[in-house]
Amino acid sequence: MLVNFMVGLGAMLVCLVVQALLVAIAVQFYARYQGRARSASFFSTLLLISGVMVVMVMGNFLQIFIWALLFLGLGEFDDIVVAVYHSAVNFATLGYGDIVMSPAHRILGPMQAINGVLMIGVTTAVMMSASQDALRRTRNARQQAGE
């Protein structure tokens, strides 16, 4: 069990690095295009927020894939599609239970769920921060334009 715990922690650390890189990319994207939120156009603001969201959600999907590769590497699944499905169910904490891992590696499921909750929380925080800032900028632009 200790080996599985250490493997799980390693996967969580890799996902943390991936998430941190994607937060940096999302922040750079936002900084590069934040001028769009300074216009009075709600559509420009929506595009800006959507861009941040796409970056962050792609990061979540990448992490699901990383866990799926780990499950394949451990011999839990023979098919990448099944491994990705199981990983997504764990990451999103759905817990369908239609596919379960062997007792030898079962602890990795809850560890991935913990990882998913944390990383989806980071995604939500980035989205809320970008949304609040962009909407504030758009509101200020509309007020200055006299709308």
From TrEMBL:
<keyword id="KW-1133">Transmembrane helix</keyword>
<keyword id="KW-0407">Ion channel</keyword>
<feature type="transmembrane region" description="Helical">
    <location>
        <begin position="42"/>
        <end position="74"/>
    </location>
</feature>
<keyword id="KW-0812">Transmembrane</keyword>
<feature type="domain" description="Potassium channel">
    <location>
        <begin position="63"/>
        <end position="130"/>
    </location>
</feature>
<dbReference type="InterPro" id="IPR013099">
    <property type="entry name" value="K_chnl_dom"/>
</dbReference>
<keyword id="KW-0813">Transport</keyword>
<protein>
    <submittedName>
        <fullName>Two pore domain potassium channel family protein</fullName>
    </submittedName>
</protein>
<dbReference type="Pfam" id="PF07885">
    <property type="entry name" value="Ion_trans_2"/>
</dbReference>
<dbReference type="GO" id="GO:0034220">
    <property type="term" value="P:monoatomic ion transmembrane transport"/>
</dbReference>
<feature type="transmembrane region" description="Helical">
    <location>
        <begin position="113"/>
        <end position="130"/>
    </location>
</feature>
<keyword id="KW-0472">Membrane</keyword>
<keyword id="KW-0406">Ion transport</keyword>
<feature type="transmembrane region" description="Helical">
    <location>
        <begin position="6"/>
        <end position="30"/>
    </location>
</feature>
